[in-house]
Amino acid sequence: MQDIKFKVFYEPSGKIHDVLAIDFIKKNVTIEYKKGKTQVVCMEFCKIMQYTGMSDHNGNEIYSGHIVKFEPSLPYSIDECMIKNGEIGIIKFSEGKFIVSIVKSDVLFFNLDTIGDWVVIGNIYATPDLLE
């Protein structure tokens, strides 16, 4: 069974924080802002990122909103579309599954678990410049 975990990009700090609790009624999130230190913050200032249940080759957990780079160990060809080494994608949740949406294409995307050679290089909130 997949772990259900979240992180948030907290806009006032400009950083990613682990989530300890989400209160949808009070609209706040309890985050760990320093090791062992927690803070309750307003959900309005948080971008919630859900854990995909997968990690990259470096052991980094992959969350929605992460920017990933394709670093294949072997060439891949899926549905006659070739993904090139260095291709950049965004992790999204769509139609009940996590996908990698390729930045240079409006149409091209892959199930995250189909091709596992993605490495986390940033996220769409703190490092959007990686998408350029």
Beta content comes to: over 45%
Alpha-carbon Rg, integer:
16 Å
At the fourth level of CATH, the homologous superfamily is YopX-like domains
**How many domains would you count in the coordinates?**
1
Element-level helix/strand string:
EEEEEEEEEEEEE
Summing up helix and strand content along with how strands pair, one would put the structural category as mainly beta
Helical stretch tally = 0
- Under the CATH scheme, which class? Mainly Beta
Q: How far apart lie the N and C ends?
A: 36 Å
Q: How many strand segments?
A: 13
Taking the sheet with the most strands, its summary is: 6 strands, antiparallel
Percentage of residues assigned to helices? under 10%
Low-pLDDT residue spans: none
Query: Strand sequence of the main sheet, in spatial order?
Result: 4-3-2-1-5-6
Average per-residue pLDDT, rounded, comes to 86
* Assigned CATH architecture: Roll
| CATH domain topology | SH3 type barrels
**CA-based shape:** elongated
